[in-house]
Amino acid sequence: MSEPQTISVSATISPATTAGLVEKTPLERYQPPAKPSLVGLSRAQLTEALASIGVPASQRKMRVQQIWHWLYVRGARRFDAMTSISKDLRATLDQHFTLARPEVVAEQISADGTRKWLLRLPGEQSLERPHEIECVYIPEADRGTLCLSSQVGCTLACSFCHTGTQRLVRNLAPGEIVGQIMVARDRLDDWLAAAQRGTEIPAASTAVGAGGNGGQRVISNIVMMGMGEPLYNFEAVRDALLIAADGDGIAISKRRITLSTSGVVPNIARAGAEIGCMLAVSLHAVHDELRNELVPLNRKYPIKELLDTCRNYPGLSNARRITFEYVMLKGVNDSLGDAKALVKLLKGIPAKINLIPFNPWPGTRYECSDWERIEQFSEIIFNAGYASPVRTPRGRDILAACGQLKSASERLSARERIALRAMAMTD
User: What whole-number distance in Å separates Cα of residue 60 and Cα of residue 48?
Assistant: First the structure.
């Protein structure tokens, strides 16, 4: 077997280039602004920030708790809104820090209610073109799920994924990941003050409730399934998700946070031990030969090694099952023999299998499996004792569905967008 290839790229990657590509290297690094935002700082980092501007040691714990509450419970966007903090300290904070979130460049709302935000982030050099990522909110009857990005572009080059055709620009900082949550809650009016203007705020574990937004769905779940491979930006993702799960702030239960990985084996156990969230694995094939093509990372961490690691995932039980994601590709991985092999492969792992109808994008060589075949595939898995939900495609008309995200830094042409919408309308 040839040595896995890792290269640096500076433009959108062609399918011919990705054929031998396992990982991309980032073109840039995050550079904090001269006046940094407090969004995304841990409590320890926030304490250090207060120490740097002269807040007495005896006051720091209290001030951290106050700022944390204003940021993550009330959604404050200005220091002068923090009325429980003295005017002098508010003024000092304003001199040295901001509460900035990523800039919203555009918002699109799908016919099914899915919302997608295009967010702008600074480049490494102040004069260069800024970067963009996408964040998606998916309302459902029993939950409101926010899909977050972890990278500008993606380390990997999965052949069926649109984001995989994009260059890897850089990893996101914790504040840029938490900032996506802040932006979504801002846009959905999903903060405590908004709820107090309405009837009541739902508990953090409640999916839908009446708030200042007149009863619209709120964010109850987070999935790290947007642009990027989260486990190749482990520390930043960990720090951001721990802020999201903090009970005195955003307070989303770790059982309602799911991290999806293509199989970065060394960091899977770390995710369980250091984050404690739910795990989803992008499997998509039952044999190494095919998975090498669909998910080239498999050449580095083959199926057996990946599944052995999953069997030892910290906290794994019937109550905390691993979700295995399986995209349905017509004539590629959707035979009934594949379904039987999948059941055999996952034997002994507390799991559910999420079947994902392929979401088309211009230029792809793949097609979605016929619906009859998806149902037959699902029935084999279900009869073997596994939950096998078929993921309903959401937001296809605004390129917000699974595998379709691609930042405006790699913007589609008008012709490509027309082609994609035509696919969505005729599917």
Answer: 9
Which alpha helices (H) appear in 140-191, and where do they start and end?
174-188
Q: Which of 147, 277, 368, 402 is catalytic?
A: 402
Crossing angle, helix 371-383 and helix 336-345, to 10 degrees?
30
147 noted as active-site residue: no
Express each pLDDT in 18-59 by its tens digit.
Answer: 455 678 888 888 888 889 999 999 999 999 999 999 999 999
Contact 407, 165 (CB under 8 A): no
Query: Per-residue b/e over 323-361, b at no fewer than 16 CB within 10 Å?
Result: bbbbbbbeebbbeeebbeebbebbeebbbebbbbbbbbb
- Among 105-114, 169-178, 327-336, 418-427, name the one with the lowest average pLDDT: 418-427
Q: Is 74 exposed, middle or buried (0-12, 13-18, 19+ CB in 10 A)?
A: middle
Measured CA to CA in angstroms, residue 419 lies from 92, 164, 196, 325 at distances of 53, 19, 45, 26
Residue 195 confidence (pLDDT): 55
Which residue, 384, 383, 333, 382, is CA-closest to 357?
333
Residues contacting 270, CB < 8 A, separation 6+: 234, 238
pLDDT in tens, 278-311: 999 999 999 999 999 999 999 999 999 999 999 9
Which residue did the predictor score with more confidence, 345 or 418?
345
Residue 202 has pLDDT above 50, yes or no: no
Q: Would you call 367 a catalytic residue per the annotation?
A: no
Which residues lie below 8 Å from residue 336, measured CB to CB, with a gap of 6+? Answer: 376, 377, 380
Across the chain, mean pLDDT equals 85
The yes/no answer on whether domain 5-27+102-426 falls in CATH 3.20.20.70 is yes
Per the DSSP assignment, residues forming a β-bridge with 328 are 357
Full DSSP string of 50-91: HHHTT--HHHHHHHHHHHHHHHHTS---SGGG-TTS-HHHHH
pTM: 0.85
**From-to residues of CATH 3.20.20.70 in the chain:** 5-27+102-426
Using CA atoms, how far residue 153 sits from 135, 227, 315, 351, 371, in Å, is 13, 6, 31, 29, 31
Marked catalytic residue, from 23, 134, 229, 325? 134
